[in-house]
Structures are given as structure tokens and as C-alpha cells.
Amino acid sequence: MLAWEERYYDREEARKEAREANTLENIRNLMETLKLTAEQAMDALKVSKEDQKKYLDILKG
């Protein structure tokens, strides 16, 4: 892998991690402020069913 490809990959991975962290924060905020379940909060945020399982695992962990 070339150096520029590695930097690109690292930046893309960092963006993905930031989006996931932001989504988790939004889920927790909706759960706290609106007293929603995790599933309700994710539905409100239009999180895909595929990703919901991942976030549920993180929230439970």
C-alpha cells in the first residue's frame, strides 16, 4: 500500500469512528431526554436495522 493510500484509509476510518460515536451520543440523548428505548431512539434517527444490532451491543456492553 502506498503512503497516500494508507493516509486516506486512516482518515476514512477516523471519519467512520466519529460518525459512530456521534450516533451513539444522539441515541443516548434521545433516550435520556425523551425517555425513549434504544430501539425507539434509533428508529427516530433512522438507523438501519443492520446497524441497530451493532449499537444495541455497544449500549449493553
Spatial extent as radius of gyration: 15 Å
Helix content: over 70%
- Content of β-strand: under 5%
Weakly predicted, low-confidence segments? none
Give the overall shape, derived from the CA principal axes: elongated
Instruction: Supply the helix-strand structural class.
Output: mainly alpha
Spatial separation of the terminal alpha carbons? 35 Å
Mean pLDDT across all amino acids: 95
Number of domains: 1
Q: Give me the number of helical elements.
A: 3
Sketch the topology as an H/E string, one letter per element.
HHH
Question: Can you give keywords for this protein?
Answer:
61 residues, mainly alpha, single chain, 3 helices
Overview of the structural elements:
- The chain has 61 residues and is mainly α.
- It has one domain.
- Helix content is 84%, strand content 0%.
- It is built from 3 helices and no strands.
- The chain has helices spanning 3-34, 38-44, 49-60.
- It is elongated and about 50 Å long.
Short description:
This protein has 61 residues and is mainly alpha-helical.
Topology readout:
Elements: H1 3-34, H2 38-44, H3 49-60
Helix pairs in contact: 1-2
